[in-house]
Amino acid sequence: MVIQPLDSADNKMIRRIKRLNTSRQARIKSNATVVEGGRLLEEALAAGFQPQLVVYSPKWVERVEGRAMLTRLQARSTSLFYVTDRLFEELSQVETPQGILAVISLPRSVTLGDLLDKSPQPLLFPIALGIQDPGNLGTLMRAALAAGAHALGVASGTVEAFNPKCLRASAGAAFRLPVVSLDEGWPDVLRTAGVTIRTTAVDRGLPYHQADWTGSTALVLGNEGNGLDPAWYRDTEVVTIPMSPASESLNVSMAGAIVLFHAAFRRQEKGIGFAPPAMV
């Protein structure tokens, strides 16, 4: 018997996926998000996430690796929904859809107390404060995981880490790097725990390569356009990335990557290895 793919958008499951794709409130309320693309779904599966459901189209079935993945998902008793390529394109948020997406539950939230209690080595903790572009946050997450950071802090005014666009930009790092939602008062909590708080500025700071990164450190990175409130520079250690006068500044995720990888290098010189890439 030939199975005909679903072609109607007037379906409860289809409407739910559209809401999860576009609405932060829907994602928070249902504690779920959308993962699109074979590679990203593989990353989620490898990190231990079990999809609530998977939607695929004929385009995905045409691929050898696509059929192999569907067989594996079927063996895991995953709910599979077959839709037309046309309907899948309605659901997709990428220019060239591969033909597969999944709804997954969000990971268990990690508190700042969890992080401070469970870190056996000096903390390397980048914090996004007011970063609004999901692509920037996802790229920062990818760099943080690769540099051996223990977690990523998400403070007020920052886009959610499990926004579907952020997930794609993270290239799967969001499934392995703990994300800590920071409540008001988090700077005092970090200082009480002996964590040095550093901020980045275009100028007037200590060159980042002259700072000591071997102790527990939080690196606060601010909004793409406005940076950080000037008050942050009075209360923290400020570091600067020296650059050619022909350039005004760096993208926030690029600046974060430069500093984090330098910190990782200095820490490894002192025998401090990478943090394990797993949820705490």
Automatic annotation (TrEMBL):
It comes from the Bacteria. Residues 34-110 form the RNA 2-O ribose methyltransferase substrate binding domain. GO terms for cellular component: cytoplasm. Belongs to the class IV-like SAM-binding methyltransferase superfamily. RNA methyltransferase TrmH family. It comes from Sulfobacillus harzensis. The lineage of its organism: Bacteria, Bacillati, Bacillota, Clostridia, Eubacteriales. It holds the Pfam family MRM3-like_sub_bind. GO terms for biological process: methylation; RNA processing. GO terms for molecular function: RNA binding; RNA methyltransferase activity. CDD domains: SpoU-like_rRNA-MTase (cd18095). Gene3D superfamilies: 3.30.1330.30, 3.40.1280.10. This is RNA methyltransferase.
